[in-house]
Amino acid sequence: MTYSVKEAFYTLQGEGAQTGRAAVFLRFAGCNLWNGLERDRASAVCQFCDTDFVGTDGENGGKYKTPEEVAALVASIWKANADTAGRPYVVCTGGEPLLQLDPPLIGALHGEGFEIAVETNGTIAAPEGLDWICVSPKANAALVLKKGNELKLVYPQDEAEAQPERFTELDFQHFFLQPKDNSEAARNVQAAAAYCLKNPQWRLSLQTHKLTGLP
Ligand SMILES: C[S@@+](CC[C@H](N)C(=O)[O-])C[C@H]1O[C@@H](n2cnc3c(N)ncnc32)[C@H](O)[C@@H]1O
Ligand SMILES: Nc1nc2[nH]cc(C(=O)O)c2c(=O)[nH]1
Ligand code: SF4
Ligand SMILES: [Mg+2]
């Protein structure tokens, strides 16, 4: 299949349990919960997205015809940036990466020595072989992927089915609340912190790349 890549870049993971770890971010174009157009945001299933995932016009973006081409791109970005040892790490995101990340690409990335992480909205079953799965459930979108390494809930979401209590029995090692970044961000940070203080199963995930200025 052809892989539509919005952009690929080297940075530090800004969120969740792997925060601070150097990684190549591989951002796929397209999402099943929003078409990415501002004029359609208010009618989308997911309305708070902070990311441009439309098209293939970003840094290293393009349409790649084979899994080997994508893996070679990711490896070249790692090698151009990391000076010393450390397990090569790729974070597949989007948009919704599970629309495109398939077993051949997982095989090709492993072939280049990468540990593979994914950031997903949890509406699509995950292929075998992923090394780190972060699920971020969205109100009004049925959750299919009910186990993984971390569950990272954007907070607050008003709908009853997106309250933190709905997720605590699921099979994840880590549970994070990530304050929703919007015009109410400061208030959302305080609300998420207050919830974690009252409910110690949950930890606070701040989007540290927005503090450091990294992408
Ligand atoms: C842009 S999404 C891409 C991956 C996937 N579609 C998903 O939703 O998990 C990456 C992460 O950013 C989170 N996110 C998106 N918009 C956000 C916002 N406004 N504030 C905080 N986190 C946000 C998502 O919930 C997800 O954990
Ligand atoms: N530094 C950095 N960390 C991130 N963690 C998840 C991100 C995403 O957009 O999926 C992201 C991102 O866009 N940048
Ligand atoms: S599911 Fe993820 S990529 Fe899609 S609109 Fe929501 S936050 Fe953005
Ligand atoms: Mg982001």
TrEMBL record:
Show where the Radical SAM core domain sits.
18-215
Lineage in the entry? Answer: Bacteria, Pseudomonadati, Pseudomonadota, Alphaproteobacteria, Hyphomonadales
Cofactor(s) needed: [4Fe-4S] cluster; S-adenosyl-L-methionine; Mg(2+)
For this UniProt record, give its keywords in alphabetical order, as a comma-separated list. 4Fe-4S, Iron, Iron-sulfur, Lyase, Magnesium, Metal-binding, Queuosine biosynthesis, S-adenosyl-L-methionine
Top-rank taxon of the source lineage equals: Bacteria
Q: How is the cofactor bound?
A: Binds 1 [4Fe-4S] cluster. The cluster is coordinated with 3 cysteines and an exchangeable S-adenosyl-L-methionine.
Residues the record lists as binding [4Fe-4S] cluster: 31, 46, 49
Task: Tell me the GO BP annotations in alphabetical order.
Answer: tRNA queuosine(34) biosynthetic process
NCBIfam families xref list: queE_Cx14CxxC
- Tell me which residues bind substrate: 12-14, 27, 93, 215
What is the protein's known function? Catalyzes the complex heterocyclic radical-mediated conversion of 6-carboxy-5,6,7,8-tetrahydropterin (CPH4) to 7-carboxy-7-deazaguanine (CDG), a step common to the biosynthetic pathways of all 7-deazapurine-containing compounds.
Task: Please name the HAMAP family in this protein's record.
Answer: QueE
Concerning its family, UniProt says: Belongs to the radical SAM superfamily. 7-carboxy-7-deazaguanine synthase family.
State the organism named in the record.
Hyphomonas adhaerens MHS-3
Q: Which reaction does it catalyse?
A: 6-carboxy-5,6,7,8-tetrahydropterin + H(+) = 7-carboxy-7-carbaguanine + NH4(+)
Q: Which CDD domains match?
A: Radical_SAM
EC top class, as a word: lyase
What this protein is called in its record is 7-carboxy-7-deazaguanine synthase
What GO molecular function annotation could you give as one example from this UniProt entry?
magnesium ion binding
Q: Which PANTHER family match?
A: 7-CARBOXY-7-DEAZAGUANINE SYNTHASE
InterPro entries for the chain: 7-CO-7-deazaguanine_synth-like, Aldolase_TIM, QueE_Cx14CxxC, rSAM, rSAM_sf
Keyword 4Fe-4S on entry: yes
Which pathway does the UniProt entry assign to this protein?
Purine metabolism; 7-cyano-7-deazaguanine biosynthesis
Q: Where does Mg(2+) bind?
A: 51
Q: Which EC number(s) does UniProt give?
A: 4.3.99.3
Which positions bind S-adenosyl-L-methionine? Answer: 48-50, 95, 136-138, 178-181
Describe the protein's quaternary organization and the partners it interacts with: Homodimer.
Q: Which gene encodes it?
A: queE
